[in-house]
Amino acid sequence: MVIVIAACGGASVSARTISFIDHGATQQSANDGGPQLLVASDNATRANLVSLYPNVPPDPGRVYLGVFAGQQRTGGYSVHVDSVERVGDRLNIRSTFGAPPSGALTIQVITSPAQLISIAPSDATGVREAVLVDQSGVEKGRATVPQSTP
Description:
Elements (H helix, E strand, L loop, with lengths): L1 H7 L6 E4 L2 E6 L9 E5 L2 H10 L10 E6 L9 E10 L2 E9 L15 E6 L1 H4 L4 E5 L5 E6 L6
Parallel strand pairs: 6-8
Antiparallel strand pairs: 1-5, 2-7, 3-4, 4-7, 5-6, 8-9
């Protein structure tokens, strides 16, 4: 019993802030579903990301993260990446999801807010998954991180 407790309660893993480059945001991504996170670290996953966010830079020396708020029925919605943290073999992407105030006049058009960021490949080495978390700490999306060979 003591061995099991010691093994489960071993060393804790601390969070480390990862710097990222903001490549911009859009109100018109091609994501017609709900909130989503895509991680692109190789040609196949980059092609998948480009299908939803067409302005992905052609730099294979970066790991791209597409953060999607999901399809909305009006304007006034947004998503903004606040921070990226690494905890063990996981990336936590902390983002603010915005919505228009109740009763606000908004453009009546379908939107799909998204933001594109990138991190250095060395910050993604050994990372297995990425989790998208909103400003309340609620998980909005999860993605497997492909092991890159740029």
